[in-house]
User: What shape does this take?
Amino acid sequence: MTSRSALALAAGSGYIDWAAHANSSRWDFAAGLVASGLGMGFIWIPVFSTATRDLPARLAGVASGVINTIQEMGGVLATAVVGAFLQNRLALALHDQALAASGQLPEQFRAAFVNGFSNAAHTGFEVGAGQTGANVQTGAAAPGQVQAVAHYVFTHAFVDAMHPTLVLPIVAIVLAAGAVAFVRAPRQPALAIHEDEAAVA
Assistant: This one.
């Protein structure tokens, strides 16, 4: 893995974080996605090559399996950590946004509206295309104004939670790019042949 590939991935991710707004379209993220994709595309082959370059050929299969296992475990662990952090930030952002936006609603809807979003982290809510967040507002049929404010609260809260959450993997990628400087150089060919012959003997 070259440090430039990792830095390209970090820069692309940083651009996505910077471009993310509640009214952003998919095209606003195009440059960041391209940079991230190119960076990611040049990372894994050098990682596998560096990890197996000094091993005897008879151990290549075992080494590849170990690397794949570590890669999968790292992906699961990173997803769990980032997901937990996002959930925590989203719960706080939902409450803050609902509290700030509740002043736009009639008095009779405000308390239930804020409580619905405050408890969303425990009771759950639907996320996806076409969802408005109406299922966490009052528990009853609500006027269009409440639905519009609920949609505003969710979209802005998600973006507010997304910004600090993306910083976590970006920092990890930058640290990985710095760690590349400590990757040792490949062995001298003569030494490698001697060690392989000794291992066979």
